[in-house]
Design goal:
The complex is a heterodimer of chains A (108) and B (122).
Chain A lengths: L3 E4 L2 E4 L5 E7 L7 E6 L6 E5 L3 E2 L7 E6 L2 E6 L9 E6 L7 E2 L3 E5 L1
Chain B lengths: L2 E5 L3 E2 L5 E8 L6 E8 L5 E7 L6 E3 L7 E6 L4 E6 L8 E11 L6 E4 L3 E5 L2
Parallel strand pairs in B: 2-11
Antiparallel strand pairs in B: 1-3, 3-8, 4-5, 4-9, 5-6, 7-8, 9-10, 9-11
Classes of the chains: A mainly beta (108), B mainly beta (122).
Chain lengths: 108, 122
Amino acid sequence: EIVMTQSPATLSVSPGERATLSCRASQSVSSNLAWYQQKPGQAPRLLIYGTSTRATGIPARFSGSGSGTEFTLTISSLQSEDFAVYYCQQYNNWPPITFGQGTRLEIK
Amino acid sequence: EVQLVESGGVVVQPGGSLRLSCAASGFTFDDHSMYWVRQALGKGLEWVSLITWDGSRTYYGDSVKGRFTISRDNTKNSLYLQMNSLRTEDTALYYCAKGSIPGPTAGSLDYWGQGTLVTVSS
């Protein structure tokens, strides 16, 4: 099973600043990596798939990068609606499909 | 507009059974793999099960293997999860989700329902 580890657990950033979230896989997942955003009381929303492709309707301030075992989600200029929990997910070696434990992005 | 609407979540005793349903609309249901993902209160996301577009292949997480059965009815655009031998640790919000890639492989999940709550308690 591929273990996905996200860091940090909590990230405090001021609105308008850049946020960088990390996701590490225990073995290579090639580029088969997705990112999701989840706000309180809501279902997760797909942000990025294939490491760097934005899903439909996702603003350009969200970008993904990386390959193999190291991945990054960058939010270039934080808006109030971006404060949420973010999860990475690998779909390269499955089953199982595995998620990271999440990074909580909070307002500084 | 893609819609996924789960139902069937209730309070059930340990050892009991439950069947969840997910009604899908707004896309070609039988083109896509479908998933169940769960989330315990205040916890992260856990993949539960996947079924390929035609129902010919099913996959399960280790924590539910042998107890849960995923199925689909493409004539009704519906996904199901039969849950047997329920345990307290199965208590969670269960989401139905659509695979983003047409065909039999796993991928990202591009649409999610709002979830149905399963509580296993005596």
